[in-house]
Amino acid sequence: MLLGQWLGFLALVLSAYILWQIRQVLLIVFAAILLATALNKLARKLQHKLKLKRPAGVLVAIGIFIAVLVGFFILIVPPFISQFQELTTTKFPQILQSATQWRTNLPSYIPAPLVPYLPDLNDLDRQVQPLVKSVAGQSLSIFSSSLAVILNLLFLVVLTIMLLAQPMAYRQAFVVLFPSFYRQRIDGILSECEVSLGKWFGGALLSTIVVGGLSTVGLLILGIPLALAQGIVAGLFNLIPNVGPTISVVLPMSIALLDEPWKAVAIFIVYFLIQQFESNLLTPYIMAQQVSLLPALTLISQVFFTTFFGFLGLLLAIPLTVVAKIWINAVLIEDILDRWKAPQSRIKRASDRDKLADSYPDPQLETEIVIRSGDGE
């Protein structure tokens, strides 16, 4: 390769390395773009219905967003921190004590001939107690990076507001990065992404509200603590297909298991019925408002983005897949592959071969003609 080609290749490798190093920042930027798109759609609706000007509509949309964010933290974070501390410092030791008593009385419930065949459980306390002490002593270890989380969240909110204030300016700055002959096409792709993300967000919001409301009602009927907070969490985790519903049921079942074991089974049944309703009735109803993705593609995208980007990648897997699908379909398939034509000389040789083959219906003679025509290159 020439020197210029080597320099271009090295620049491409260096750019890929830099992008990989800042991948978490890029995900936060994408999340800000997603929120700005949703808030921009809300601002437009407020402008239309309330006859507001653009600045007033944006301010009202931002106020709603900040109020929802603050309310979420007030309802969710303090109760869950308190409940988590109680689970690790009080409930788990009680479970260990009950398990120890049950192990001690176990031989009395088993016929004498089977007692010698019981596994040796004498080391159970020595193996489990250090683990429990470690969990109790580090009950707040998952919050050790709370400062970084708060800073990232603050960055997300500020960036969302900045993008929402002047969306067209940032959009034009992105379009200018492409060659002049392709800028109109890029602007059309961005418009398609905006429409698709808006549809996905609307359908996902409706699904979140319904699942969160049903979960809250079910937990209230069963008398589970923090019913509202856990219902909100169930609704939010419903944004993560396949994995989210499973994660959301763990905490309420754990709390119920420490209170009354039958409630854990009841919670599992309630969440299962809610998910069946959401999957078989609600989702098909709102699918017209969402972007249709193949189930296997959804699962593969979740595994891919979680592997490379962690929990934030899992949370944003669906909108990332929606955007990637639009760009691949528009740029790779429509603009490159669909317009990829074979060289005219090869097409001419193929046409001559077909004419010669039509003159010889015998397959053996047809094969000989193909070889003689010089197409076996």
UniProtKB/TrEMBL annotation:
Keywords: Membrane, Transmembrane, Transmembrane helix. The chain crosses the membrane at residues 25-43, 55-81, 140-165, 204-229, 311-332. GO terms for biological process: transmembrane transport. InterPro entries: AI-2E-like (IPR002549). It is found in: Membrane. Its main location: membrane. Pfam families: AI-2E_transport. It is a multi-pass membrane protein. The keyword Transport does not apply. It comes from the Bacteria. One of its GO terms (cellular component) is membrane. Belongs to the autoinducer-2 exporter (AI-2E) (TC 2.A.86) family. PANTHER family: TRANSMEMBRANE PROTEIN (PTHR21716), TRANSPORT PROTEIN YDBI-RELATED (PTHR21716:SF62). This is Putative permease. It comes from Chamaesiphon minutus (strain ATCC 27169 / PCC 6605).
